[in-house]
Amino acid sequence: MSFFNSINIAGTALTAQQLRLDVLSQNMANADTTRTAEGGPYRRKAVLFQERTNTPFMTALNASRNRSAASSSNFSFGGGVRVSEIAIDETPGPMVYDPSHPDANAEGYVEKPNVNVVMEMVGLISASRSYEANVTAMGLTKAMMAKTFEISRG
Length: 154
Hints:
By secondary structure, this protein is of the alpha+beta class. It has helices spanning about 5-30, 55-70, 115-154, and strands at about 45-50, 80-90, 95, 110. It contains three helices and four strands.
């Protein structure tokens, strides 16, 4: 695996985690939104990740490496991660009694968004830590590249 492949994989993770942070922030910002353009309260969104498959060239290169390997070990190089979908959570939100609210039904209940602020904060912390880990991985790869060039100069 080349240094550039390592940086590319970490870069895909940074992009995916940034989108995850954006969606989690949007969920928190709409935690009290009871009316949307689609009708009804805001629905929580979740980012779904999927492994990014190798390019056709990488697939051919990996197959070539596998055939020439002396041992039976399998060389498998990932292509990183990508966002496969931003899913909408259709779980109904809590019903709160508030007859004075403009979105209250005939019985006086208002359906609130299905956003749990505590769980969204946990997600934000997790995404932030993942982002930091990938920035660190890129930094370490960059340092290894610099050391390699330094050694090769002699």
